[in-house]
Amino acid sequence: MGKFSFKHIFFIVSALSISSLKTYPQIFMNMSGRDSWVAIIITCMIMLIYFDYLINICLKNNCYSLHEIFTTSFGNLFGNLLLIVFASAVFLSLIESASVEANVVHTNFFIESPVWYILLFVVIPGFYTVKRGRYSVMAVIMVCIAISVFNGINLAILTSRFKDYGRLFPIFEHGINADFFLSIVKSIGMYSSIVIALPYLSQLDIKKGLRTYSFLGNLFVAQMIIVAVVGVLATFNVERANTIVYPKLVQTQLISYFGFIASGEFYVIFQVISGWFSKYVTTFFALVLIFREFKINKVVNPNIFLIVFTVVIYVVSYMTSKNLLTLFSFLNLYVYVCVAALFLLPLVAFTVFNLKSSGK
Prior knowledge:
This protein is mostly helical and about 350 residues long. It is about 75% helix and about 0% strand. The strands form 2 sheets. It has a two-stranded parallel sheet. A two-stranded antiparallel sheet has the order 3-4.
């Protein structure tokens, strides 16, 4: 069967990277306060260079298999073990996607609907989409991202009159301290789910334009995140923003035009559901692609594999998302795991792989 165009990397990168930093930015904002917009700009610059570096190594060495990169870098034993560590972080990203989506919908829209019930509308459609294969996955990603971006642009326009950019200043009123750098580390962890796009490289028709489109996708994500964080800080003062569970959703409640366009809920509910569901499906299929490199599909029936993982995801996500304090405790730990397993680990693996390949 034919492969996707390399241009599809734009949608994959967007699906994986936007939702976390837009939905719960207080994870890092409570560390850097008013200077969070400076921290997120630095993070975006780092991630633009970082992901381009990884893509360039793949193109330079004409290698798009994570299994080959990890085993070449660390040997068969440690390479396989570290790839399992990477896959475990991808699994945690699945838990994050399902948990946050269910909790956001429960907390802000349908508080009388229990989390276990809302989760069914995440994991069952997700299972069906992934089971149908990569063409279904890509179709869902493209539609969801189109919906999310359209609603995001509308919300940015509708909330513009409520923003006071004077709230962004002064910068570094109390100087630069350790908390500022920690906020950068945490935001890198939230952004590092972008590397879950790497397993998809084997599904793309690789051409030189891949690097350009992956960079453009990453740049598109970066500007959306910066606009979102700046928008939150400009709408609320930082003390207020850090006490709101999901500030972007509260921000839309300010909207009131002509007596009938109110609360922005129509836009934001579609943006949240489409954004998080696209991340869930993209991450789930990436996990399937990683396990295919271990030849698991030759040992275990793929349908049984998907069912077992869906049930595990459902149970763990329910335990995580049924309580806000539990969810945010998980998210605070999750971002550090992402820094280690989704940022530093691929950086080391790809660098070592490049050095060994160059020395041959």
